[in-house]
Amino acid sequence: MSDIIRLLPDHVANQIAAGEVVQRPASVVKELLENAIDASAKAITLIIKDAGKTLVQVIDDGKGMSTTDARMAFERHATSKISTAQDLFNLATKGFRGEALASVAAISHVSVKTRREEDDLGTQIDIEGSKVTSQEPVVTPQGTMISVRNLFYNVPARRKFLKSDSVELRNITNEFHRVAMAHPQIAFKFLNNDSELFNLPSGTYRHRIVNIMGSRVDDKLVPIKEETELLTIHGYIGKPEFTRKTKGLQYFFANDRFIKHSYLHHAVVSAFEGLLADKANPSYFLYLDVPTDSLDINIHPTKTEVKFEDEHSLYAIVRATVKHALGQFSIDAIDFQKDTELDLPYNIAKNGTQAPRIDVDPDFNPFKADGGLKQASGNANFQSKATGSWDTLYAGLEDSSTMNDESSLHPDMETLFSKEESTDKNIFQLQRKFIISTLQSGLLVINQNRAHERVLYEQLLRQLTVQNGVSQQLLFPISLERPLEEVTILSQLQAELESVGFLFKTLEKNLIEIEGLPLDLKSADVEGLLDSIIRFQQEELPETNFSHVDRLASRMAASMAIKTGDALNGQQMQQLIDELFACKEPELTAQGRKVFINITGENLNSKFN
Ligand code: ADP
Ligand code: MG
Predict the structure, then answer these.
(1) pTM, whole model, 2 decimals?
(2) What is the reported pLDDT for 350?
(3) Relative to the alpha carbon of 102, which ligand is closest?
(4) Is the predicted pLDDT of residue 608 greater than 80, yes or no?
């Protein structure tokens, strides 16, 4: 038998290597942007078509390449950035492996135009699947333009593996954010299908963060700064109220490179301890600078996971610095260095604000025996002392009429049971949470919030399928600013949102403008609802088999439903009960939680033996 081991041809080896470096269009974006930065560009433009599947193009005004270098750049292990293995421990550049361009060229159609300052003519090289198809001199500005077309054209399995345009665009946008935030001194532009998504002038770190995240973050940022021998740290942490239920805006950079580091992340989170609501995630934008030889970026092919020397000390410094900044902030809660220039002319939901409301009972008089039935739930102990009357038994049991009716000020048995809706139909509200109704067989205890959620859910589902939602026109349109990817998520849901009654004037770039709302939605709740829809979409990628419509309906129902703590009158309770039992599945909420329980006479009997 003959020998069977062969060396793989170069283009096959490159294709295999490409699998490590290039998983998706966003990987190409990252590599090309980093090369432009390493070439000392001052302005970088990123242009993509169809979420990078058709085209990824990066244009820089950096130092350019000679003809020979331009050709060499596409060879595997061809790099100008390191020459010995020792250099790996002293990296001052983004690239160093010399495999990005070779990998990209193996799986796409690449065209490069480049010129150095000292050359009159530049060079254009075209490559298809690692093969150079043309090379000629060309007139071109100083710098480099690389166009990558038809990514994975010769690796169909990979191409099939790509996600929807919206998901790939989100990945690219994330990558772009990370690079742009690490280099505020470089101007960036980003265009997708000929529309400009970002135009970021060079400026301070704060400018850059605000330009990317939207001006609403500006007054939420607390600056932080610390210099020690081991590291210097600067950047911003989000004020404790600027948190998110899902992942916050959390960015670590080490030596100008975006990194992920769960240990240091923990240091930041633990510094917030006690300041955050349960499950809330702090936001931070932290820039660490460490000596290059104490940072190992070599451990991961895509170079986001890194290793520091002496991580324990870094942990302590990061935690203490963040704690200190938070302490400073809460002492003199002023807006540090708020940059007024950055205020964009968008106003956030002006008409959504409401004056705080305090419920006061003007007739309450603690010295009168009949002073306070309205206090029945709020101050039952006091009442029992003052009057010693039996009605403390009903503490917490709020008849609708006691909440909303003048005549309820007389705490005798008559008024407690005399209102039509409560006596005839025997409906009570308990702790502003439960609706209690008597049945032939016993007691029905309904969770008001869940019941309403069920009702709204079924109603919204109907509207979404037959698209007959009713809209209330807003006198003052609501305008909100959100990061691009969040607006993109909403624009993908635009048809559905409109079928339940939303009317959008604008839904692009960073801007959301709403002219009409679903009938039952209060403008004050809009922001919370949209955020929760966005979060939900982000958590469960559209690829999962959850139905779009289902998810939207359940999100909206949850945020529009009557809440625990809302007082209901008898009529409202009756209507809710009627609507609930007209539902297809009254027993459970969309998330499968119990809506009501039934306490039978037998149940009760068993408690009395
Ligand atoms: P690495 O960045 O790891 O060195 P790459 O394959 O990304 O490897 O690039 C190979 C080489 O091509 C780089 O070392 C650099 O010399 C050159 N190069 C790539 N992109 C550019 C650019 N935009 N401007 C100037 N030189 C570039
Ligand atoms: Mg590179």
Answers:
(1) 0.60
(2) 34
(3) 1
(4) yes
